[in-house]
Amino acid sequence: LMNQCLQFLKKNKLIKEDDPFFSKTPNAAVPVCICAWIMHECDEQDFDGTEKHHTIPRASYNHAQKLRAAMTYAFGRLYGLGSLPWHESD
Fold this sequence. Notes:
Blueprint: H1 2-11, H2 30-42, H3 61-78
Helix pairs in contact: 2-3
């Protein structure tokens, strides 16, 4: 799924061909890029905001959760980000 995400982002020029999207120091646009990829796969609207034709398959909500989990795994487990334990804020 990481490669699928990268292909989408490069194809739609959301990242440069040589951009290290998956890294220990991701840029600030990463969350937006991930959302764009998930919405492209699962949403009723196409990436450009137009309604998708009824013949274009859409992934399920369950699949969207799997895509998000894959990105959490990539950045959290493979790159060690987001390892701060949960704590209640004051």
